[in-house]
């Protein structure tokens, strides 16, 4: 019998895989995945863009590229990010194999086994697994409707053993769906200054806002680049082009970029040139902007359909956010409810979601659940939500 | 000032990057990279294959896929590997983001900080960096013309602290260009049996043989799947389609697959669906076989041109392999020569290669150098080799 590493023993086994198997069953309506709708991908646009490229660029798509990314994509993506106010000139950009890899590289750059890492509670599961694979000691800090609870963050920061990272997803949080308030971000910045704790600001969903008036609130902390905090900003093409391209990025200070580049070289040498060439053409053609504008409207429609169905069918003791963007609605059930048991009943009825404990750094708290509306038609939503509501009533009364 | 992890401090800094910068200068003939020739990529074939796919498959190319790989590619690749005699039914296949990721996942699955890992001396630099990033204690075992020196392997195996991995590249070794003999492989198997040390068999170049009569010698150890050894077989589309697709694989026992899948989930969630769809179509169309047959001939031509130039220009005290496949010729200079100094002179003359110490697990031994012929025309070879020969004569007499 082989002995495996300690890191691998810390990773949760087949939970997610089992869920994904359920979610891909054609007889089950899945609100489980964070996958964009298949019908929304810009298939034809990308195919045309590729065939119009010159021969040299097409050949380069088959070749190794530099570890930090293809120069042409670094340039066009810098422009895209600069238009959002991000400080691309005073930082460096690294193209990663999905933003999952950005998190994994940052974890490996900062974390030694046993190091304390602060995350939101609940927290994006991909971040949890990236930190676990670096053998981090995870500490969850609860969020309320405006963001991380600052008093609790302060307590963690004041502990003797310094935390090595703080990870947040302030813009249409996965799974909690929340959008940080401007004030909370300002408090967060003040709290972190002087702590010497790098901040990972994960902005995978920020482009998918439903209301123009939220744009100011969506301004990344990185765009302020506050003094005395190493802000590591991560983003992704997954929600604004397609996750199957496996392209994300980080915008980070030079010294951190250098370390992440080294780790990336050992991890997969470079990101796929083929899809980098496609993403570059998508940005340069300007099609990315009209595409994002289109999917925003579509996700808004799906979110409204889900909110309407929840309003109609959920018992009044269930609380949830009305999403202002992104992919998710987060349900909070009465204390002591077990979302896993509810899910088992819902699956028999023909619908599935993700139980809350999956997003708990300790894997325990389970009176919550995540619904995704991103990959469902309004009809599927109208059919699936009553099944889940019935399962909740059956177990919670 | 941030504190970084111990793992990142073990990785070599800018050596490779500096070399790649040199290698990409248009005024320098580069024999440095292990990159396939840009002119050889099947650009048109792939473009046609993609446009002929049905809409559903094209959409799936934009979507997340299962962590172990797209089912359709797992199926077609299984067929491709089974035709080589590999035991796909009694093992499991994992698609990776290049075979570099396969090495990185295996490292993270087996290695805790400080664990002993056995590698060939010289060794593929990507493997060295994957093992270093897991904080392995590397031990190089010299190779001769037939493979790993078994007596020295035996010494390492007999040491009290068990090694956690043995890594070899028996088929057109990078950088040493050698092809293991059948006898040496048999000895290696006998030596490993009972040692409880998993074997990574890296077969990135095996398809690129120049002589039909070598096919038996190219039969992977994995195809025997010897009792009592966990053989982890890795391969890649990089040399038989294009590295820019970032697709490789590992064929491993079930228990190891399960661990590597978990680590992959934390590392980048899944390999690029877009390029998996392309690779799948390439295999299913049968075009992969004719393509490989074509590049074999082309690389054979380039290898012959380089051997001819070396015969003409090198001083007789320089020893080298005549390649029977793959990408590389490995030069051994008199004891005490410094290939880095030779390179500096060659660069001034307009040609570049990789100095031997890059491939030394200890980063010291430097009376050797690697020449790649894969990305050069016979004309470039005829022009570049005399520059290198002159630099050798200047320093070694």
From TrEMBL, chains A, B:
CDD domains: AAT_like. One of its GO terms (molecular function) is pyridoxal phosphate binding. Belongs to the class-I pyridoxal-phosphate-dependent aminotransferase family. Keywords: Aminotransferase, Pyridoxal phosphate, Transferase. Gene3D superfamilies: Aspartate Aminotransferase, domain 1, Type I PLP-dependent aspartate aminotransferase-like (Major domain). It comes from the Bacteria. It comes from Chlorobium phaeobacteroides (strain DSM 266 / SMG 266 / 2430). Homodimer. Its cofactor is pyridoxal 5'-phosphate. This is Putative transcriptional regulator, GntR family. GO terms for biological process: alpha-amino acid metabolic process.
């Amino acid at each position: 019998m082989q002995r495996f590493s300690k890191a691998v023993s810390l990773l949760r086994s087949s939970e997610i895989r089992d869920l994904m198997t359920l979610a891909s069953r054609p007889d089950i309506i899945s609100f489980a995945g964070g996958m964009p709708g298949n019908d929304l991908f810009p298939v034809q646009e990308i195919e045309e863009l590729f065939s119009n490229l010159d021969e040299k660029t097409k050949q380069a798509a088959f070749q190794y590229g530099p570890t930090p990314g293809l120069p042409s994509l670094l340039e066009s993506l810098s422009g895209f990010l600069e238009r959002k106010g991000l400080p691309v000139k005073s930082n460096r950009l690294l193209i990663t194999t999905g933003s999952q890899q950005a998190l994994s590289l940052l974890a490996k750059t900062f974390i030694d086994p046993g190091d304390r890492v602060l995350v939101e509670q609940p927290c994006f599961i991909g971040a949890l697994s990236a930190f676990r694979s670096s053998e981090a000691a995870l500490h969850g800090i609860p969020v309320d409707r405006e963001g991380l609870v600052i008093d609790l963050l302060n307590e963690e920061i004041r502990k003797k053993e310094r935390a090595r990272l703080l990870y947040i997803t302030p813009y249409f949080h996965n799974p909690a769906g929340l959008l940080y308030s401007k004030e909370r971000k300002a408090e967060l910045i003040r709290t972190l200054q002087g702590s010497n704790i790098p901040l990972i600001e994960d902005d995978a969903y920020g482009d998918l806002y439903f209301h123009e008036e939220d744009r100011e609130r969506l301004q990344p902390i990185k765009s302020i680049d506050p003094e005395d905090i190493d802000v590591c900003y991560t983003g992704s093409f997954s929600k604004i082009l397609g996750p199957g391209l496996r392209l994300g990025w980080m915008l980070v200070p030079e010294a951190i970029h250098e370390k992440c580049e080294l780790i990336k070289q050992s991890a997969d040498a470079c990101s796929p040139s083929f899809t980098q060439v496609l993403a570059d053409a998508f940005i340069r053609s300007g099609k990315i902007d009209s595409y994002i504008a289109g999917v925003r409207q579509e996700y808004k429609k799906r979110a409204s359909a889900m909110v309407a169905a929840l309003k109609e069918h959920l018992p009044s003791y269930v609380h949830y956010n009305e999403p202002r963007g992104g992919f998710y609605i987060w349900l909070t059930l009465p204390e002591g409810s077990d979302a896993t048991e509810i899910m088992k009943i819902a699956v028999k009825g023909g619908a599935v979601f993700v139980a809350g404990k999956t997003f708990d750094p300790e894997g325990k708290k389970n009176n919550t659940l995540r619904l995704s509306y991103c990959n469902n038609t309004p009809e599927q939503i109208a059919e699936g939500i009553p099944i889940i509501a019935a399962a909740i009533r059956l177990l919670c009364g």
